[in-house]
Amino acid sequence: MNKKTISTKKTVFGFLPAIAGALALSWQAALAFHPSVYVPRVPEDQLERVREIESPFLPSPEHVEAGKKIYFGKGLCVTCHSNNGKGVKLPGHSPRDFTDAKWQDLRTDGELMWVLKNGSPGTGMPIRVGKVITEEEGWQVIQFIRTFGGN
Ligand code: HEC
C-alpha cells in the first residue's frame, strides 16, 4: 500500500462518524420499529434493571450548562433534536419531542442513558456515549434534556 492510499484512508476514517450517522438514518429506518413514542426503547428483558439506574450526579446548574455545551457541540444532538428540543423531521422515525411532558415523565434517566449507550435500534438515534461523549458527559446532557420538560 503506498503513502497516498494510506492518507486517503485516514481522511475517510476522519469522516466515519458523519457517514455512520447518515447510514444509520437510511438502514435503521428500514427495520421494524414500534412507532409510539411512549413504548420503552430498552429491550423488555433489560427494562426493569435499566429503569432503576440513577445518575451519579445530582442536578446542578453546572451540569446542565455542561450538558448544554455537549448538546449544541460535540454530541451533535442539536442536528437532529433541534434548538428547542422538539426535533427535526427525519425519514422513518423522527426524534422525540423533548418538550413532551408525558414522555419526560415516563422515561427514567437510566433509560435515557441506555439509549445514549446503545442508540435506539430501528431509528436514526446513534450511539453517543463511548463514541463521541463520555459517560459523565452523557449524564450531563441528560440533565440538560430534562430542562426542555420545564424541570
Ligand atoms: C442523527 C440524528 C440524531 C442525533 C445526532 C442524536 N439523536 Fe437522539 N434521537 C434521534 C432519533 C431519530 C430519536 C428517536 C428514537 C426513538 O424514538 O427511539 C432519538 C431519541 C433520543 C432519545 C430518546 C429515546 C427514548 O427513550 O425515547 C434521547 C434521550 C436522545 N435521542 C438523546 C440524544 C442526545 C443526548 C444526543 C447527542 C449527544 C442525540 N440524541 C443525538 C436522532 C438523533
Coarse structural class: mainly alpha
Kindly identify the CATH topology. Cytochrome Bc1 Complex, Chain D, domain 2
Q: What general outline do the C-alpha atoms trace?
A: globular
CATH superfamily: Cytochrome c-like domain
Beta-strand segment tally: 0
* CATH architecture assignment: Orthogonal Bundle
* Largest beta-sheet details: none
User: What percent of residues are in strands?
Assistant: under 5%
Distance between the termini: 56 Å
Radius of gyration from CA coordinates:
17 Å
What is the multimeric organization of the chains shown? single chain
Q: Into how many domains do the coordinates divide?
A: 1
- Helix run count: 8
* Contiguous uncertain segments of 5+ residues: 26-32
Helix content: 40-55%
- Mean of the pLDDT scores? 85
What small molecules does this complex bind? heme C
Order of helices and strands: HHHHHHHH
CATH class assignment: Mainly Alpha
How would you characterize this protein structure?
The structure is a single chain. By secondary structure, the protein is mainly alpha-helical. The protein has one domain (3-33, 43-148): Cytochrome c-like domain (Cytochrome Bc1 Complex, Chain D, domain 2). It contains eight helices and no strands. It has helices spanning 3-14, 16-29, 44-52, 61-72, 77-81, 101-106, 109-118, 135-148. Helix 7 (109-118) crosses helix 8 (135-148). The radius of gyration is 17 Å and the shape is globular. The protein binds heme C.
